[in-house]
Amino acid sequence: GEIDYDEMRRVAKKQKPKILLAGFSAYPRNLDYAKFAEIGNEVGAVLMADMAHIAGLIAAGVLDNPFDFGFHIITTTTHKTLRGPRGGMILSQGKVSNPLKPVDKTIENLPTLIDRMVFPGFQGGPHMNNTAAKAVAFGEALRPEFKTYAKQILKNAKRLADELMKRGFKLITNGTDNHLILADVKTSFNLDGKEVEEALDKIGLTLNKNSIPNDTLPPYRPSGIRLGTPAITTRGLKEKDMQQIAEWMSLAIKYRKDTKKLKSLHSEVKAFCLHFPLPSD
Fold first, then answer.
1. Which end of the chain has fewer CB atoms within 10 angstroms, the N or the C?
2. Using CA atoms, how far apart are residues 37 and 71, in angstroms rounded to an integer?
3. Within a 10 A sphere around the Cβ of 91, how many other Cβ atoms?
4. How many CA atoms lie within 13 Å of 116's alpha carbon, on the beta-carbon side?
């Protein structure tokens, strides 16, 4: 399940890509941006990272920043771990953008080239309320409290991963370095991800079915499930609470056909959550 950088180098040297992209939606390990950059530079590729899922963790400094390793472009959402409103950003290194003036197609002119492509070609009429909300989210991400929050996300994820493995869940890469956990429930329990997703939903635990590397099942009934710890960390859960979540997950799978037991588990989850109310004004 982990990236084979030697194989990446072999393929890159053979195919000579114009752009090398580092970014995934269900990869629970740190990316070796230095290795990506080394390979990209060897073949003359533009280096691009998509950090949509881990942007908040990078902003808080608990995961590596691709720009520190010579990447040219970063794309990200403004929600997910950044906790802002829905939206996206394209970040780039180079000369300060001057979108009103045509420029040569060079790496140093990427900011201008991107701006001229995005507007007016793809984007226009910004919603200023969304822009203001993004500014608030970015301001929050600069605070010391946000770094504490990001560190707790990682602590919770590692503990939850350990507790799940104790209960028979086979995790892709056998753990996590970030906020994500990807589990192979087909191998673990001979169930597909949709079955597990639905069982957990019945007791009030939300996650999603997800394909795993080299999955032999279709994406609408894949072999895996994907879950993360940002939301529960926002509500104040700590490492000690991960044992309880893992136990509920295990029980929901075991009693997935027992309506009475599922209702009882749902009541337990609901009562537990009352101790961790949603943030409010």
1. C
2. 7
3. 17
4. 15
- Look at residue 87 and give its three-state secondary structure: coil
Closest CA to 49 of 62, 60, 34, 151: 34
CA–CA distance, 67 with 150 (Å, rounded to integer)? 20
pLDDT digits (tens, 9 = 90+) for 74-103: 999 999 999 999 999 999 999 999 888 889
> Tell me: the pLDDT tens digits for 9-63?
999 999 999 999 999 989 999 999 999 999 999 999 999 999 999 999 999 999 9
Q: Does residue 108 contact residue 95 with C-beta atoms inside 8 Å?
A: yes
Which is it for the CA torsion 101, 108, 106, 126, positive or negative? negative
Q: Which of 88, 52, 63, 84 is nearest to 147 (CA)?
A: 63
Residue 66 is given by DSSP the state G
Domains of the chain, with CATH numbers? 5-141 (3.40.640.10), 152-273 (3.90.1150.10)
Structure tokens that stand for 124 in this block: 């226009």
Tokens at 44, concatenated = 């003359």
Provide φ and ψ at 227, rounded to 5°: -145, 165
Tokens of 204: 């009030």
What is the full DSSP assignment across 186-250?
Answer: HHHHS--HHHHHHHHHTTT---EEE--TT--S-TTS-SEEEEESHHHHHTT--HHHHHHHHHHHH
Write down the pLDDT at residue 121. 75
